[in-house]
Amino acid sequence: MDDENRGWVASEIERKWQAYWDEHGTNSFTDEELRTAENPFYNLMMFPYPSAEGLHVGNIYAFTGADVHGRYQRLRGKDVFEPIGFDAFGIHSENFALKVGRHPMDLIPSNIENFTRQLRRIGGMFDWGHVVDTTHPSYYRWTQWVFLKLFDAGLAERKEAPVNWCPSCMTVLANEQVIGGACERCDTPVEQRRIAQWFFRITDYAQRLLDNLDEIDWSETTTKAQRNWIGRSEGAEIAFPVVPHDELPGDGGSPTSVDPGAVRSVDGARMIRVFTTRPDTLFGATFMVLAPEHPLVDVLTSDAQRATVEAYRAKAAASDLVSRQKTDKTKTGVPTGGYCRNPATGEALPVWIADYVLMDYGTGAIMAVPGHDERDFEFATEFGLPIRRVIADGGEDAGTPLEEAASGDGTLVNSARFDGMSKDRAIRAITEWVGERGLGALRVNFRLHDWCISRQRYWGPPIPIVHCDGCGPVGVPEEQLPVVLPRVEDFKPLDDGISPLARDESWYRTECPTCGADARRETDVSDTFLDSGWYFLRYPNAGFDDRALDPEITGKWLPVDAYIGGNEHAVLHLLYARFLTMVLKDLGHIDFEEPFTQFRAHGLIIRNGAKMSKSKGNVIVPDPIIEEFGADTFRLYLMFLGPFEEGGDYRDEGIEGPRGFLSRVWDSVTCAEERAPDPDVERKLHQTIEQVTGQLADLQYNTSIAAMMEYLNVARAGGRTAARAEVEPLVVMLAPFAPHIAEELWEHLGHAGSIFDSAPWPDFDPEKTREDAVDLAVQVNGKLRGTVRIPAGADQATAEAAARAEENVLRYLNDGEIRRVIHVPDRLLNYVVT
RNA sequence: GCCGGGGUGGUGAAACCGGUAACCACAGGGGACUUAAAAUCCCCCGGGAGCAAUCCCUUGCGGGUUCGAAUCCCGCCCCCGGCACCA
After folding, report:
1. pLDDT per residue over A816-825, tens digit each?
2. pTM above 0.90, yes or no
3. Is the CB of A362 under 7 A from strand B?
4. Distance from residue A808 (CA) to nucleotide B52 (C1'), in Å?
């Protein structure tokens, strides 16, 4: 708006330089250039989902922060490859298409077009020649290729798994779509179903995924989240022999104890296997609990209990996976009527089923030690089961009853010959002791589950498998890729959990690639996380139609040097990407196993102290802001809001600061005089270069900008006109944040070509950063009593002489006797007086 | 409950390795220019007392270590994010 008042017209400059970059290929590489680059630097940001609403300010914040880093590296002499793409498959797009009643194949291209327009407008250094669109057959052809590589290596397998099922919508729901046990759309209570799905065996890589975290330079918060998710725990697997029904007393009572030595592994005998982190408490196990779905439930259940057990199992199956795992509900469960033997005591323990034991963690069965586990304690209290102390922690002895579960450290009691042993020693000793009888071994367990990649949905890449009655599941031969997603007009997920693709008979009917018999295509599509799990590998190879990865180019550019993105992807996306990279390395397609050398999570932008949301109507719409202030000002303001890795609070008025700053830079540069720099200004300049150079490398953008503002205030102090040599380096330092105005000023200063090609990053001379006088704080008993200006590097005698010349200091010194003097050169002098 | 990250002026935030708390901005107040407004420029701006010099208080709360603590230690409170019946 007030362009005529600020000497520069943002929209004109921005249009001019964006056109220049396109014409001159400033930001893009040819495939030949990718091959020959000397200082490759792969600068990556998380590609967006191209929503109909357009770029969100959170996207712009992330991209700008990443772009500043890329431009900085470029000015430091790196050949920076900074690609962008679109993560356009997935439920998000599909649900939106359903909502507006249009087809995603029609919506996505226009969304991408709009995103492209906006991305160009914010002035990112994107390589528009290497764009990736996950929904384009030229991309998902290779996504399917990745699937086949895992399939061929035995890392993709089909197995049954429980899913959330809405009986009203007749569809599978993701956990996030279940609100309080009900479908988020129709409020119908959700139930569990078991259906056959494709899984990637990521658990095979659990230990490696964990170990490598020590080697990579990632935000601490992100690696912590991954460690937590992988969830390694050390413990033991212990087997409890099932007491056969014919050994049970006829009166329905419990069988008697036997000598522990007689409890041993016998071929063919059924065992209940449990995982426990506390094998030291084995003597305290007083009952067993199996998950309702546990396969041994059938054989354990007595005739008398069968009806009760079946009813409980049915109820458990009818509840959804989310509310099943709520911790705050009262424990429920029923006895099966079956028993097994505790290998430590020889006692017969009743076996219960309860939904607090989960089939998909450990072995789906636990030994219940109510004395030393909170959940087991609660369960035992609820059902009147025995609670036995086997750990004492000093104050108590073996006989002290337990008021609550004591899960801490201590010494063993009531544990026969292990009494008196410490918890940690007993873990090993007891496991070895039962191990001698074939009933136990130390074991590591992970919380991580295999990655289910099947989606009974439409908007994704078809899984490249053909089901043949004779040959089973067969991979589609590579030369037949891509398996093109057909245009299905009725893609609403209905029917009975079967993918919409199953409605297109002409598509799914095919012949078996192996035997030629009539066969049927897999009708599920794959998870969006598979698309995003390898896109960074594809960017530099986007120009090749005949191969997924060119070895030479991939070897040169990967792994990614710097990856910036949101921490909402700390676990799934970043873990899957690491897993796929490891697999592709093991299969010989690439020669590195960690995809991102450095990862930094950016913070979130809030507005006026509140989260932005559509319902609150406080969402920042970027286009009008860019319209009014220009991309440079907007970028600069976003980066000035707060520490990049923490985010910031966007306040509309705040943009005035960076706007005024850019105007003053413009004035100072366009009016600069050809003369020698002032020594004081030059000193400040060198200090500023030192600070900005160091801080930009660490993504400390807000303080870098503050330093540049401070410098300009010095260079313009008292209304003085700056010398050219005083402001030219400032233009270069500003270029990563405000690339368009920097280009224009660089040209104004008489340079040819883009500043990013021709400008050297300014050097600072440590000699010239040195102050010759400093303000020394003078304290008496730690309280500031004066400040004296003395030569830099002055010794204590000089400092004291100056300090004692201060009237106010003397006042306090005269009060008592000086006990001690602390002198920190160039900083302070502290008199300790009594 | 567990794991992260935080808590500093009216606001967003600075502060090297423990060394002058509040850089840089926003908002606010005052002034210059202007017929007027906008824009621009200059000055003030944590709280309290005082004409002033200057003094006292102040980094969520309570203790501690230290000549000296926003920073280190112990014990709490609160906010944000993630995980959560994980055996």
Report:
1. 788 889 999 8
2. yes
3. yes
4. 15
